[in-house]
Model the fold of this input.
Amino acid sequence: MFYSLEFADTKITGVYPQLELKPDVYMKNNNPDFKKLNSSKLVIDDLNLNDFVISDKANSTDILSCQLPDSSIGLFINKNAYDVFKTYVNKHISIIELLINEEKYFFMNIVDCVDSIDFLNSNFSDILNPACGKFKVKSYTEYLEHNRSRKIFLEPDSLKIEDNLEIMRLPFDTSIIVSERVKNEIEKSKITGLEINGYDTIILI
Done:
């Protein structure tokens, strides 16, 4: 089983987003490092992500919500959450250390795992024509070509994932996906700031 991670309700977090840009940075719009973040490529260079502060209205949680240039491209996490997630870092994830309110936090950058999807052993369906049955595509490029044609609109029913990924971001939506083992560790460690929901697409490892 796999699950999606969402930010917790504001009843838990106090406010959304919990992180804000420092006022002088927000007014000048002068942090070019945010523009380096995107959903398809990990940023290997050192990033300056130290321009955030925790909102006065925010409650203290292990995961801090933030509005990023590309939705769900990563999570701002404290040491408690880092200790859970660090075991599951893969080629689509990097973790960057930073300071928020003079305390050590981490940004877990997660990008699309396109090259870990075995498309030939995955199944898709056309949501515009459900009666057409299952579709096979050979690649992500072919998937995009079908959807851009507007004649059919494919969504995954089941995905075969290679590389034994237990944390991933799929290119079909903005969810951060975790395995049952990661879910159990999050719950065992009582990591706060997240909600864990079921994920409709069948994922096969």
